[in-house]
Amino acid sequence: MSEKKIMLEARNVDVFYGEFQAIKNIDMKINEKSVTAFIGPSGCGKSTFLRVLNRMNDYVEGFALRGEIEIDGEKIYRKSVKVEELRKKVGMVFQKPNPFPKSIYENVAFGLKIQGITDKAFIEERVINSLKQVALWDEVKDQLKKSALALSGGQQQRLCIARTLAVEPSVILMDEPTSALDPISTSKIEELLQDLKKKYTIVIVTHNMQQAARVSDDTAFFYMGELIEFDKTDKIFTNPSMEKTESYITGRFG
Amino acid sequence: MINVATKNRIKDKLFEYWGVISTLIGVVLLVVFMTDIFMEGISRIDATFFTNSPSGLKPETSGIFPALLGTLWILILTASISIPLGVGAGIYLEEYSEKNWVSSLLEINISNLAGVPSIIYGLLGLEVFVRIMGLGKSVVAGALTLSLLVLPIVIVATREAIKSVPNSIKQAAYGLGATKWQTIWTQVLPSSIGGILTGVILALSRAIGETAPLIVVGAAAYIYDAPDGLLSEYTVIPMQIYTWMPDAREAMKVNAAAGIIVLLMITLVMNGFAVYLRNRWQKKVKW
Q1: Least CB-CB distance to A110: which of B176, B179, B285?
Q2: Mutation test of the interface with chain A: which of B98, B176, B180, choosing the one with the most A Cβ atoms within 10 A?
Q3: What pLDDT digit, counting tens, does each position of A33-63 carry?
Q4: What tens digit of pLDDT does each residue of A95-142 get?
Q5: In whole angstroms, what is the distance from residue B146 CA to residue B36 CA?
Q6: Which distant-in-sequence residues (6+ apart) come within 8 Å of B98 by Cβ?
Q7: What separation in angstroms does the CA of A123 have from each of A109, A118, A142, A241?
Q8: Distances (CA, A) of B2 to B8, B11, B12, B15, B17
Q9: How far off is chain B from A111, nearest CA to CA, in Å?
Q10: What are the residues whose beta carbons fall under 8 Å from the beta carbon of B4, sequence distance 6 or more?
């Protein structure tokens, strides 16, 4: 079996919000074309760490980062890196579906249009492809001009994923993408992840342990800003090395 | 002996009556005033009132043409000065400026400026625009002065409108690689334009009713032509009303009343438009 390429690597990463240290000395390597789940109790730093990966925390007051993060061979906190370029490569899906108050079509086309792409045929092809990839095409193909806000929550979230896919990222970060959705929409998105990981590297934060077990290849357990354990998902859920991991996944705290 | 429940009910009723009376006083006074003005002025309102110039000798055929055009000039100039500046400042304060003591000091000052008496702005305009910049008693000097007056309102309205755009929408745009400006231009502004416009229109409708600052910066008491350029002399409707009002002749009083009707109608139309815009955008954008 050939070793997968490493897509994302963190070395000695510390994150501060003012005086408060949210992330403590994290080292991590994430393989390409895999699903990695971040689990841990609220406030453990998993969302912070996720947002650090496409520099969404840059705008947070008092934010500071030490250490090095490398994605696809690029050290993303170097001064020479343009955040906008980075975010095209490292897309993000949020907890609550957040479509723009525009048409379905315009939502998916947005990422391309802000890059200055004006070729209509090209944009249309990308829009259609992206909608097909998230299995939304059949549901919306006759109403592309309709407002995205008219879609159901689950459809909105798949639209948000399609919107991210349209700019062809290599990594997709998902911050509890199903926590606001019903079980059927949730399972649709979980199925989708299995398709998407053939092409993309996916990192997903989840509070739902079963979800982590179902969808991910690797699981990282965070606690109080530290990375307690990071291993194959099977191993984490059946035979964790750390006592803390075991008590968390068996529901003894958190 | 009245028990506590009855006592509380009486208090409750009394408060309700107090509320009704307070509301009625405002409404009744307004209706009385409006009827009075309409009875007096409506007979003077015909086409010639809008097309004639005022005349000190022939009050019966006096019109508000120069004042009406002057008000339009002032309105358009004030809008084109105060909208870009006010919206720009609002965007900066809300989206770009760092939150520290300098910015909070700035914020407090802007909010306070909205409450400064308008004649103070007149004095400022007189010194800066009329004298130092040498614009004289021109329509542009008047518009600049009124722009100062409405800027704080426009800034505050812009900030409030921008604030109502959910952070999640901005995050989504940033997440797709949009710059701050692209996010503002493609997402924040389109979603908040209704609120911004409402604020702008309300501010402008206040501006066109202002007399005090324009007296100070030299709007003319009697003028027979509409402005024909930025440096032209001018008058505005409230100014015209103000010069007709103290005239002893009965026909002049009628003119003043007719002028008030026209001014009221303009403000009413503008405010109605603001309400329309607000409702339309509220329906279009719901989060």
Answers
A1: B176
A2: B176
A3: 999 999 999 989 999 999 999 999 988 888 9
A4: 999 999 999 999 999 999 999 999 999 999 999 999 999 999 999 999
A5: 30
A6: none
A7: 6, 8, 17, 48
A8: 10, 13, 15, 19, 21
A9: 5
A10: none
Looking up tokens 């002025």, which residue turns up?
A: B41
Per CB-CB distance under 8 Å, the chain A contacts of B284 are 101
- Residue B251 gets the label, from left (phi > 0), alpha (psi -120 to 50) or beta, of alpha
Sign of CA dihedral B132, B137, B142, B143: negative
User: What's the pTM?
Assistant: 0.83
Q: How many CB atoms lie within 10 A of CB B47?
A: 8
Q: Where are the domains of chain A?
A: 6-249
For residues A9 and A54, give the distance between their C-alpha atoms in angstroms, rounded to a whole number: 13
Q: Which residues contact A23 (CB under 8 A, 6 or more apart)?
A: A13, A14, A15, A45, A48, A49, A52, A225
pLDDT band at B1 (very low <50, low <70, confident <90, very high): low
> Which residues in chain B have their CB less than 8 angstroms from residue A162's CB?
none
CB contact under 8 A, B287 and A101: yes
Phi-psi region of A92 (alpha: psi -120 to 50; beta: other; left: phi over 0): beta
Structure tokens at B160: 């409030």
- Strands A35-39 vs A218-223: parallel, antiparallel or unpaired: parallel
Q: Using DSSP, how many helices (H) and how many strands (E) does chain A show?
A: 10, 10
Residues of A in contact with B167 (CB under 8 A): none
State phi, psi for B182 to the nearest 5 degrees: -60, -40
Provide the shortest C-alpha distance from residue A186 to chain B (in Å): 20
Question: Reduced to 3 states, what is the DSSP secondary structure of residue A134?
Answer: coil
Query: Predicted ipTM?
Result: 0.91
Q: Give the pLDDT score at B277.
A: 85
Contact A84 B285 (CB under 8 A): no
Three-state DSSP class for A213?
Answer: helix
Q: Which fold has domain A6-249?
A: Rossmann fold (3.40.50)
Query: Residue A203 forms beta bridges with which residues?
Result: A36, A173
Q: In one letter, which amino acid is B203?
A: A
Query: Do the chains contact at A98 and B171, CB–CB below 8 Å?
Result: yes
